[in-house]
Amino acid sequence: MPASVGQGGPVTGIKESLHEALRQNRAAVVAKLDGLSEVDRRRPLTTTGTNLLGLVKHLAGVELGYLGESFGRPPDRPLPWYADGSVWEGADMWAAAEESTEEILETYRRACEHSDRTLAELDLDAVGSVAWWDEERRVTDLGTILVRVLVDTARHAGQADIVRELIDGRGGDDQESFGDEEEWAAYVARIAAAAASFEE
Fold first, then answer.
1. What pTM, to 2 d.p., does this model score?
2. CA atoms within 13 A on the CB side of 135
3. Is 111 helix (H, G, I), strand (E, B) or coil?
4. Integer Cα distance of 88 and 13 in angstroms
5. Are 130 and 1 in contact (CB under 8 A)?
6. N or C: which end of the chain has fewer CB within 10 A?
7. What per-residue confidence (pLDDT) applies to 105?
8. pLDDT tens profile 85-115
9. Could you tell me which CATH number the domain at 14-171 has?
10. Is the dihedral of CA 22, 28, 31, 33 positive or negative?
11. Which of 55, 50, 63, 9 lies closest to 31, judged by CA?
């Protein structure tokens, strides 16, 4: 995996700590695509259509919007779903048949690199403006935006964990350290029994 989407080095300072946490969450989202068929990467697994490849596609726009355009650093190539306005119809949350996994991953990689340059070149108190926020709170700073992007990415990483588990049972990183399939089944049975005690 490219370093700009995943692994980082030693961390010092609050900006570096937040940036490293962002890198880790980026990598967690991308890793959920590993070993899956194109259908499983794309198919909706919730009633609102949440799917793995769509999460990656959406996060490319989050990175470029918040850590690019909000600081006067638009991308060289605007995202097509922003350029044609289809983002406002949810086009950033799923992959069209003509969009390959490789294309979307490359778009996300480039978006992360673009964000990384912003983070490297600006201080946390650098002033930005988020055009799609209400006017009275539109002007903000890099620290606030970095936290916003980190929280958004972490939230979608959690969704990706659940979606991947629904596809093939592969849970989070600590799944194997807890136990084997039999131990997990016993654990889930205890949870189900506790819940059932409230049935009327």
1. 0.89
2. 0
3. helix
4. 37
5. no
6. C
7. 98
8. 999 999 999 999 999 999 999 999 999 999 9
9. 1.20.120.450
10. negative
11. 55
